[in-house]
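Much of what follows relies on a compact textual record of a protein's fold. Each token is a code from a learned vocabulary of local backbone shapes. The record below shows the convention in full.
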Amino acid sequence: MEELWPAPAPEAAEAIRSLCQRLLAESDALAEAFTRPALEAQDDPALLADASLVEEDRHLNRSDLVQWLTSNIQHPGRRVEPYVGPRTAAYIRDLVSRGIEPNFAGGWRVALAIGWRWWLEECVKYCTDAALLVEVLDVSAKSLVQYALDSLTALREASMVAAVGNADAEAIALIQLIASGATVPEDVAEARLGYRLARHHAGLVLWIEDPQQVDALDQAVAGVRATSVGRSALVARASATSRWIWISGTDTPDLHHVQKVVAATEAVRAVAGRAGHGLEGFRASHQDALAGQALVVRLGSDRRFTDYADVELIDALTKDRASAGRFVTRTLGPLAEADEALREALLTYVQCGFNTTRAAANLYAHRNTVERRVSRANELSLVKVEENPAHVAAALLVLALAPDIVATTSG
């Protein structure tokens, strides 16, 4: 690439190299600091609603950060070549195919502001000589701003390439319109999708964390379709790492087979929305599934299959992870860190309407064992189950979905 400014003096170059080496070790924390604000600045509801795309955006942000830092370790203060690798190209194709046009420039402005503050603080701590500080800031600002401009150009070019090469864009864009709440005539949608909408639908999201495991994702999708005997299935490639699926029939779809398929397929996660009827059911079930996926990703849960109907309350409680952790601690106290069997017994007891016999049957345990566990769990809990069963059950559900939420939000 053409260099647009003189190389820094040797002392300034060494300072930049040392600073970048130090920040490279903190790249995860730095990327986390600007990823969410930059994502929100892109101002696209469809992007924000899809946890798989959010993760790809997070990966892109971290890759940009590491690219600039490592390049400045090798060539301090010089112009940095943007890197648009296969994963980034796939992400751009996914955005284009779904008609999502995020404000990348707005995201970069926010990321630059936050990143520059970190860089400025490190420079001030490292450069005790005023003249050295001025040169380091001057040349690194040129490099950083030019990198942002070059990266935006590369993203625009990748978007144009993706737009030319996407043959399925029309169908996927129609699904995106329906899912986002746009008014689409049912007969038109059915004709273009080849899928009947005047039925009962269950929306699913299946996804993987690593794009290298896409074969496992495709196997799971094939398994879901194969076991949906007597029902119709619509599959959309939502992103490189996720698939949207709708299963429909004349009655409410039973999704137990989906749990079995996911359990048998390595690395795949799934969330099911509540079933609904017609176009609105198609839309609402899908929105449930997206919300459930975002919840699982947000909490870092390792749960393989999630029914959104079971976790809707937890979704509302955990929009702020720190607040959710405090809620669990204030409600359960020592029980939050006690034996998991105690918490499971107490939660099952509440869910079974305070019926020990039913709870024992659900837990495949002796009635006396369940009674002892419930009694001990209630002793440990700050809020007693007879005083506020709703709070106790909610806190236990949060902890069941995110076992580390207390440890990661303490202090």
